[in-house]
Specification:
Elements: E1 4-5, H1 16-28, H2 38-58, E2 65-68, H3 71-89, H4 92-96, E3 101-105, H5 110-119, E4 121-125, H6 135-140, E5 146-152, H7 164-174, E6 177-181, H8 193-196, E7 200-204, E8 215-219, H9 234-237, H10 245-259, H11 261-283, E9 288-291, E10 301-306, H12 311-320, E11 323-324, H13 340-345, E12 352-356, H14 363-387
Parallel strand pairs: 1-11, 3-4, 3-5, 5-6, 6-7
Antiparallel strand pairs: 2-8, 7-8, 9-10, 10-12
Helix pairs in contact: 1-10, 2-10, 3-5, 11-14, 12-14
Length: 388
């Protein structure tokens, strides 16, 4: 039985173009890109080509792209670097007890929330029932000691797109660094770092069909942050450690595919149609609620609240029927913890289901989920009624 993989928001299968470039680089390149021998120079060319490809995808200069092991590392580098930068510029602040302060929204990814909290004091800004924050509320949370504001481009659980342009513009007016977590947005919607005017932007390779273990922190030209990882001069002394050139070549190839605006628009249109089909199927089931914004949302992600059944049962039933999906907190799948995102929205955080499509999703995949979801939910409710 062929399976329907509908968990692209967690990780997307490696695109054929990325796999081909990855394998070619593994077989062909052996040198350290920091060396001046022929093997090293060949690796350097591949590395800088990948950097240019990623930069083109997000509307940045290639020199602004710092490769990382993924969005999690990029986020931590942004939060820690902002705090250290402020401490270096005002060393007396820590002695006086003020310390660094960062602003996050209540629906940020756990990597953002925890990295900011570890770096110092944090103000959490609430959201409305669709998971969207008010730009004015974020800006009102800025204090004299604020070293960074974090706002996601779009939410990883419900797909709601945030007013990033307004937040960024307000932060620039106030002279406060702003970091945009774009891990879920890059490769799904057009992203233009230069036009946005943000200071920092994080992205993930495996979310867009690149190899796992790849990502980037885009750092505005002229901004200097202390590096999170030290020990070498790689990435122009902004991130120590030998770059995984082959995997980054794969990331570059995936980025090149998506940098074509026609291709990106076509994928987004297909994903939006598939997601709409899933929402329509869910709407026909009693006790099912669609979460997120109906207007400001990513094209590929559907989050549902299913009353009266436990999420584990729904996931197992779908999996047995050949459909891969997700439930609960985005980074706590092993324990199916309640979602902080849904809690912040004021909805049931214990009984959610996330279906997300991507480049490899077929109409047959969607049809299987359309047919299976009512069957699984109905079966669980019948079972519960018999046991009560």
């Amino acid at each position: 039985m062929s399976r329907a993989y509908l968990d692209h928001a967690s990780t997307s299968p490696v695109r054929p173009e990325a796999a081909a470039a990855w394998i070619d680089a593994i077989e062909r390149l052996a040198g350290d890109p920091g060396r001046i021998h022929e093997e090293g120079l060949a690796a350097r060319v591949a590395l800088e080509t990948a950097r240019e490809q990623v930069a083109a995808l997000v509307g940045a200069r290639s020199r602004e792209v710092v490769f990382t092991s993924g969005a999690t590392e990029a986020v931590n580098a942004a939060a820690w670097g902002a705090a250290e930068r402020a401490a270096a510029r005002a060393p007396g602040a820590a002695i006086d007890g003020a310390g660094p302060h960062q602003v996050v929204t209540a629906v940020e990814h756990s990597a953002v929330r925890q990295a900011a909290a570890r770096a110092g004091a944090v103000t959490v800004v609430g959201v409305d029932g669709t998971g969207r924050v008010e730009a004015a509320a974020v800006l009102d949370a800025i204090e004299d000691r604020t070293v960074a504001v974090h706002v996601q481009w779009a939410n990883h659980e419900v797909g709601t797109i945030q007013p990033v342009a307004e937040v960024v513009a307000g932060c620039r007016e106030r002279g406060v660094l702003v970091h945009v977590d774009a891990a879920q947005a890059v490769g799904r919607v057009p992203v233009d770092f230069g036009a946005l005017g943000a200071d920092l932007l994080s992205l993930s390779g495996h979310k867009l069909g690149g190899p796992p273990g790849t990502g980037a922190l885009v750092v505005r030209r002229g901004l200097r942050l202390p590096p999170l990882l030290v020990g070498g001069d790689q990435e122009r002394a902004r991130r120590a450690g030998l770059e995984p050139v082959a995997a980054l070549a794969g990331l570059g190839a995936a980025a090149e595919v998506l940098a074509d605006p026609d291709h990106l628009a076509a994928e987004a249109s297909t994903a939006a149609g598939q997601a709409d089909r899933l929402r329509t199927a869910a709407a026909g089931i009693d006790g099912v609620t669609v979460f997120g914004s109906p207007e400001h949302r990513l094209p590929h992600l559907v989050c549902l609240g299913i009353a009266g059944v436990e999420p584990q049962g729904v996931l197992l039933g779908l999996d047995r029927g050949g459909v891969a999906a997700h439930s609960g907190s985005a980074c706590s799948s092993e324990s199916l913890e309640p979602s902080p995102v849904l809690e912040a929205m004021g909805v049931d955080a214990h009984r959610s289901l996330r279906l997300s499509v991507g480049w490899s999703t077929t109409e047959r995949d969607v049809a299987r989920a359309e047919a299976l979801l009512p069957e699984v939910v109905g079966g669980l409710r019948d079972l519960a009624a018999r046991l009560s």
